[in-house]
Amino acid sequence: MATADRSTPNVDGAPGGTHTADPHRETGRAAGDPATSAATTISALVARGAGRPPTVERVVIPAPGPGQVRVAIRAAGVCHSDLSMIDGTLAPAFPLVLGHEAAGIVTELGAGVDRLSGGERVVLNWSPACRACWHCTAGRPWFCETSGRPSAARGTTADGTPLHVTLGLGALAEEVVVSQHAVIPVPAAVPFEQAALLGCAVLTGVGAVRNTARVAAGESVVVIGLGGVGLSAVLAAREAGAAQIIAVDVAAAKGSLASAAGATDFLLSDESLVRAIRERTDGRGADHAFECVGRAKTIETAWRSVRRGGGVIVVGMGGRDDVVGLGALDVFHSGRVLRSSVYGAADPDRDVPALAEEVLAGTLDIRPLITHRLALAEAPSALDRLTRGEGARSVVSFPT
Ligand SMILES: NC(=O)c1ccc[n+]([C@@H]2O[C@H](COP(=O)([O-])OP(=O)(O)OC[C@H]3O[C@@H](n4cnc5c(N)ncnc54)[C@H](O)[C@@H]3O)[C@@H](O)[C@H]2O)c1
Ligand SMILES: [Zn+2]
Ligand SMILES: [Zn+2]
Q: Which ligand 1 atom lies nearest to the CA of residue 225?
């Protein structure tokens, strides 16, 4: 396992190490608080190591401690970052419960929980802000120094081996026990499967367009990589009034998904891609390009796809050793800006409820993102589909 890299925390599955403590777990129990129940045995999608296919196992989840809540998961999306936990891109601790994009119902409150009540519909937040560190107090909770590491210790496997959960959540499971700060109430009218997507793909893709690039009406946009994240960027670009939205993927079947989300053009990612984008943007290149794959090569393509002074937003999470090559003269002459967008540069406590309202109002229609619905037992097939670039989001539903 790679050594911890504390200098780059807080990416959807940040490179490097693990942490074992929930930073939000409060100590001490307020007088008069009810005692919490016992640990529970549940089914979860567990990865035993990199390169090993995950399987559904029975695991033991602890009772909520002070400041924690238990959430019965109702729907969980399968994100590429779950695949990155097991394909060598990241180095989490194993055994590991996968999943970090989910919605459910609060079923139990630990001592001292003051911001929630039982029965609330909530979206899970994989980067809860401490509101006290340097980045949080500077208004950038997505860089919170206490959150976003790939795995955290929680519970045990059936034979008592210490278990870990993805991004402090481990949401491809019947239940999670998490900090009260890692859940965000949303209106009960938002369907669980759509609410789940607000917790990662939608917040990330929409936030990249609105918060990081600040796409304006009439601008031109390129989106490379049309999974749940890239398609969310397409949706947001349309909503922002972008005049041209050029969607790009290696899979031809993504063309219909792109147009359903509002893309004006669809191009296959091949040798002629940059030329084709320039032909569609008066020879200059687009105003913004969003890299939603997580590879150096596609970051370079995004770079060459934008005009002088344009912006490249890296949304995809690539490998530590996949190095981006840019010419020094080109960097100077192009005047382009290269930025990443971590968790949509969003404040989930503020932005998830706002997105939920847009979903309810019909102004943000995220239904086209969901292409497969499945049971937990079928979740490994969703990871296979991500490997092949098939469909958009697969959402696991849990029977009530
Ligand atoms: N910034 C964040 O905070 C954040 C949050 C969530 C996910 N992510 C990352 O965003 C990326 C996308 O996530 P997703 O769940 O949408 O993934 P996904 O696997 O569903 O989609 C990726 C898409 O990229 C396409 N693709 C692969 N190679 C390509 C190439 N060379 N050119 C063009 N398209 C190509 C695939 O066919 C697929 O459609 C991943 O790297 C994920 O880890 C980042
Ligand atoms: Zn994710
Ligand atoms: Zn913080």
A: 24
